[in-house]
Amino acid sequence: MPVFDVAILSDFRYPGGTSASIAAEVHAQAEAALSTVLVHVPSPHQPRALPFSPRISDLLRDGQATLARADEPITCKLLLVRQPRIFTEDLAVRPEINAERTVMVLNQAPGDVGNPSRYYDFAAVRDRVHRYFGADVQWAPISSQVRELLLRAEPGARLTSTDWHEIIDVAHWWRDRDGFVGDVPVIGRHGRGDPVKWPLDPAEIHAAYPERDDVRVRVLGGGDIAVQRLGHKPANWDVVKFGAEEPQEFLRTIDFFVYFHDPDLVEAFGRTILEAMASGVPVIIGEHFRPTFADAALYGTPQDVRRIVAELYADPARYREVVGRAREFAEQRYGHQSHLTRLADAGISSRLSPVSPRRTGPKTPKRRVLMVSDNGAGMGHLSRLMAIARRLPGDVETVIATQSYAASVAHQEGFLTEYIPSRKALDAAQPRWTAILRARLAHLIELHEPTVVAVDCLPHPGVVEAVRDHPELVWVWVRRAMWQRGVGADWITQGKVFDHVLEPGEFGDVADGGPTVADRPNAHLVPPITFLDESELLDRETAKKELELDDRPAVLLQLGAGNINDISSPIARICAHLSGHGFQLVLAESTIATRPMPRVPGAKVVKIYPVSRYLRAFDLTVSAAGYNSFHEQIGFAIPTVFLPNTATRLDDQVGRARFAAATGVALTVEDPASGELEQVLDQAVRPEVRAGLAHRCRELTFTGGGAAAASWLSSLPENTWRMA
């Protein structure tokens, strides 16, 4: 008898959000190679002759789930029960299911504002579910709205601490848009026909969906209800029967998604709203949805719709900003990865890293990778690519193409290196720079004949155009996470052009509040990447000897390249404080610094790459919290005081440093201009504090991701590697 990862029990005939939610979770599970069995239990509230939802039929046809037979017992790791109204009466046949864990997903509230128990009696449903599946069932509301109303009906209900929220595959729904749909704004909405889904007051319908020549209205499903309440069909309305168009295609025909409903209705979640966000359509909804959609939606009353639409339609840049923010929110909070994470918390882990289908070609391989890096403020982009390249198998050739001033470093490390002058170096306008970068990449592709191009930089327009110019190649975006909250959504969107995303891990990933690509089906995550493995570090005696250090404690200061913020201001104070405690001072000067490191009496300045090879010589480091140095010092258990760079455009060094301090692996100074600097240094000079930091680092250390990234890159399906 097979043991399924997930069993989902429900009535699969529901035409709306229930079936859409189930289908989304089954898709996510299938992408992670998890097995799903569907257990159909008819609801007493559904017509007997109603067929399965097309969404459910499609996933069964495609083999993404198995339909359970009524006469066979089911064994699974997790049983998800959906739609509590199934249990408003005793089941005619009790399904035989043996599950390690059972979760009842409360995707509908017991009632509404006027009657908290209008749809079902929670206590009666709970008693039946416990009788069928045991008293250990976990009760998980789908949203804060359902939670609130359920507790109003049954104050003593024991619910999970977190909601079992909806999920969506943004990549499936997203459509790139080239301007507005027509010459006037197009307002629309979609959903099943239900009277409670529309405002009761005709004046509110008129306000939300105006009858005017300077706007069009499209309605997919339920439009006849609104027409009946208005008493006529407005001339500018296009009413489409539910099911006549696919929601994905319908959403491409509107500019704004506007949704208002019966004031007594408590919307369980608002899946159609999420679908609009994922499709790139701004949504205008009531304030009561804010707990679910935060700042990703536009809020108001029906009377505000006309003003909001007019303002956004007149400001395309702001329109795009709203779209990008909503898309980022949908991916981050409700993407597939959020579902896989909660399954992992239940002990059900993905069996593979999801990958996209590959293009076919001749079987005889020519294995060459072109690695392209940004210039950056430091050497993070280039170092990550070199960390991967130096671990690739011997039969995979590597060409490094970089905009960094440190191209000579890559050459010294033994890589065939090409230099691409950056936009800053050329002082070029954006259109000229786009053309230059596109042409330069085309030349390198023709010259070196790679089959895979790995890009560790932002997807600049020149890069995006190069990807589209060369669809015969496999393009991988090496995308460092931990971006700052609220920025970079446009880059995430542009990154859709890549075949794969390779994401180097973050020790502080739980503190990552920025946009994410981790939930994309073509994303592959590896542990944090460092240029060196711990075994490659020099031993303490050798490192001290090569740096000409004596037996006194030594501190290494590496505060970055100095190309973003002024690193000189805190250095004198740090050096004075630590030298006063008997520390030898070593200042690491970046190989790409545009101005020299300030000279401090008694301090040694070194300009070596990689400086991490010498880390065992030091009893303490004072460092910026860039990706490379952060993971090297924590991974190699070097006591560290982090001074996060606050002037970076994307990199959230503050979040990274705060997480390190919170977990006890490092100390952090967020305001070096204040007395906080000396207070933290006073802690760092104490041997017992440094020993505690090193001990904590060793407890929480991680394996190097460079080898894992190289292994993944070199083990792409055989037909990835084609003859040039």
Automatic annotation (TrEMBL):
Its domain of life reads: Bacteria
Q: What organism is the protein native to?
A: Paractinoplanes ferrugineus
Entry-linked Pfam families: Glyco_trans_1_4
What protein name is recorded for this chain? Antifreeze protein, type I
